[in-house]
Design brief:
This protein is of the alpha+beta class. Helices cover about 35% and strands about 30% of the residues. The chain has a 6-stranded antiparallel β-sheet, covered by helices on one side. A hairpin with a 3-residue loop joins strand 1 and strand 2. The radius of gyration is 16 Å and the shape is globular. The N and C termini lie far apart (about 35 Å).
């Protein structure tokens, strides 16, 4: 796990941990070259030596590079730290869909609006693959 102030590839300064997963973490970082806050999805722990996980992250970056949609975070780059890939993406301030779940249950029109936006994005993804 990275701590605030640590650098990734001497470019990305860790500001805070956003989320944890089985394979790694997502950090809010400062891209010191572009002078903007971005999200960094970084493999950590045992995942860094799992060839299947590494291939999945690389594939995720390759797919994201072809997607442009308002409902999908903008992808900036797939980079390597040593032999470990990481993704650099747009940082969006706000709440996750998981956090909004209960609120959306009580607001069906808004729920369906989000659902149709997501459906459109998924169909676009399928057409690219």
């Amino acid at each position: 796990m990275k701590n605030p102030g640590e650098l990734v590839r001497e470019r990305y300064k860790v500001l805070e941990l956003i989320a944890k997963s089985k394979i790694g973490q997502i950090y809010k970082v400062l891209d010191q070259v572009e002078n903007r806050e971005v999200a960094l999805k970084l493999l950590e722990g045992e995942s860094t030596s799992d060839a299947d996980v590494v291939k999945r992250v690389i594939k995720e970056g390759e797919v994201l590079a072809h997607l442009r949609h308002p409902a999908i975070v903008q992808f900036y780059s797939l980079e390597m730290e040593g032999r470990t890939p990481f993704l650099v993406m747009e940082y969006i301030e706000g709440r996750s869909m998981k956090a909004m779940k209960n609120e959306l249950r009580n607001d069906l029109p808004r729920f369906f609006n989000f659902f149709f936006q997501l459906r459109t994005a998924v169909f676009r993804l399928i057409s690219i693959l």
